[in-house]
Amino acid sequence: MVTHGVGTIRDALPAHAIEVGSDPLGGPARNSVGGWPFLDDTQAWPSCFCGERMALFFQFDVPLDLGPFGGDHLLVFHCREHNDASEPECADGRLVPGYWDAPQPPYPRPFWRVLLQQNAVLPTAEPEPSVCALPLTLRPFADATDRRGLGAQAFKVGGTPSWAQDPEYYTCACGVDLAYLCQVPEGMEFAVHPGQPEQPYSVAADSYGLFLGNEVYLLACPAHCDPAAVWPVNQN
Ligand SMILES: [Zn+2]
Ligand SMILES: [Zn+2]
């Protein structure tokens, strides 16, 4: 049984559309699909419980006007082999302690890792091997809400989520309410290099997706209680 709070109207952060470029990156860039992850010194490249190194899907510097997250570096990793939807586990009205590492039945741990890094200065030596490295551009836009109070269904950071179903909000294990930060539209495909293993249930042999192609709404802990204190809500 999944329990969660129904969203209340909250002040929206400024919105930035995230645009994927078409010219492959030849070297590290802080805003990228695939590419060279920028991680804090103490942060290793995340691995899945299955032993596979997770694929870097995208990363970018959060614009400075985005409240408590401004200046953070957001990275979204997801296992190639394990492709499923996220299921929140709550206790006492909060996500369970260490939810970013907690069992995700039937899996012993989550098959994704979303990080907000605050001291990500240098890129890794090697790039993400599977997902093609492409530049990302962030551009401010007016995320006008519709009559139901929903924002644009787009790849964006800030603004207002376009909830495909009822709004979902959660309280972090640390007691602070998670705040909506970023949305990845349903069915978004990420091109992979030729010869890479296929992703189960993906729509094409030459692309990977996140969370079975669900719409993804990243809710993050404004208190930064842990770099991985981000919950990926899945809806369709
Ligand atoms: Zn895995
Ligand atoms: Zn927290």
> Distance N terminus to C terminus?
19 Å
Q: Helical segment tally?
A: 0
Beta-strand segment tally: 16
Helical percent range? under 10%
Bound molecules: zinc ion
Radius of gyration: 17 Å
Shape: globular
Oligomerization state:
single chain
Strand share of the residues?
Answer: 25-35%
Average pLDDT number: 94
Helix and strand sequence: EEEEEEEEEEEEEEEE
Largest sheet: 10 strands, antiparallel
Order of adjacent strands in the largest pleated sheet: 8-5-4-3-9-2-10-12-15-16
Poorly predicted regions: 1-9
Structural class: mainly beta
Give an overview of the whole structure.
With 236 residues, the protein is an all-beta fold. 0% of the residues lie in helices and 30% in strands. It is built from no helices and 16 strands. It has strands at residues 5-6, 13-20, 32-33, 55-61, 73-78, 90-91, 94-95, 112-117, 134-141, 156-159, 168-169, 179-184, 190-191, 207-208, 215-220, 230-235. It has a ten-stranded antiparallel β-sheet with strand order 8-5-4-3-9-2-10-12-15-16, with no helix packed on it. A two-stranded antiparallel ribbon has the order 1-11. Strand 6 (90-91) and strand 7 (94-95) form a beta hairpin. It is globular and about 45 Å long. The model is unreliable at 1-9 (pLDDT under 50). The site of one zinc ion (ZN) has 7 residues, from loops.
Compact summary:
The protein has 236 residues and is mainly β. It has no helices and 16 strands.
